[in-house]
Amino acid sequence: MKLCIHRGTHQIGGIATEIATEKTRIIIDMGDVLSLEPDFVSAPLDIPGVTDTNGHCDAVLFTHYHGDHTGQMLRIRPEIQIYTGALAKDIMRLSSAHSYQKDEVLCKRMETIRTFSAGKPLWIGDMKITPFCIDHSAVDSYLFLIETEGKRILYTGDFRLHGVRGKTMDKILDRWVGKVDVVVTEGTTISRMDSKNVTEWDLQARLKAYLQQYKYVFVLCATTNLDRIIACARAVPCGKYSLCDAYQFELVKTVSEHWHEFSGFYEMPKLTYFHQDPPTRFTELGGLMFVRANSKFKSIIRQFDPGQSIILYSIWDGYRTKPGSSIPGFLALTDTWEPLHTSGHASPEDLRHVIEKADPDFVIPMHTDAPQKIQTLFPDRTVVLLKDGEEFLL
């Protein structure tokens, strides 16, 4: 069996991983490179047999819908089957249809995606692939247990233990995964070895306090960070509004339709949506509004007393501090702004926890800009540091 990380051994995002036997070849994720530079265009990723006809590929599987994992979908030959979770597929379809640069070709390609279900094995050639739904800042994210030729590979994808569903990871590892031969793990936070993450429940509690202190609370967060949006909406007390635009409402509704039967957390929260202007009663009663850093929401926020308002910045801070960012000006619309965010990725300590439970013979880091630091987490394990395009034989 061969494993090759085509991109992502020494960077965060823009990743693609190949796992192949003599009979079967799959790719996991195929994303755009992340950058804070304005007008940046990701370098195309060329993989023989995937982006051209120089070879074969049986399938491409996406762990979740973030662009650094799916952004190069259209480079995949159209006859190659793509797989993802059912909810992730619907979110990608809604996001693509909503985009101001709607890509009809991409929309059509998304319609061809086949879906898998958590815990139900998927057979592709001689590979048994079992997806398990895990917590990340994208709902419907998956890790994969890949079994073939007597070997077991755990591909973690992006994950965390401090999210709404973080406790499910131990259940997955204890009940269904057990010991594996190889763990291919994300390592986004390895470069910040002392990083500690607050939980989504901590953020929800802080939001409740802000709602008592301020009449108007504006939350600037990623539109598809839907666990965050639902948790925030659930923090709003009776008698106050919880507002979003029609697009965010449709996304939350889609999540609820897929998952409300599995958890009460995903029952449709109290949300009122608007198209151009918020309801006039919001001025009287106050409450919470989800916003984005654009001219539409700038004009809306200016309608309210800045002394009674606060903007909660609920996105990775790098977007705020990058040169030329418009976000500082947006945050200045109210007298006060505060950060209200936690990472979508596992802390170094949580990475250690997962690796120890899976007890692999080999640990292969990726989705990290400091792979060499992972050895300090596992001094007694064999850590394999690959280069992009380098093959590992198992």
Automatic annotation (TrEMBL):
Domain called Metallo-beta-lactamase: residue spans: 13-187
Superkingdom per UniProt: Bacteria
Pfam families: Lactamase_B_2
Cleavable signal peptide: none
Entry-linked SUPFAM superfamilies: Metallo-hydrolase/oxidoreductase
Name of this protein: Metallo-beta-lactamase domain-containing protein
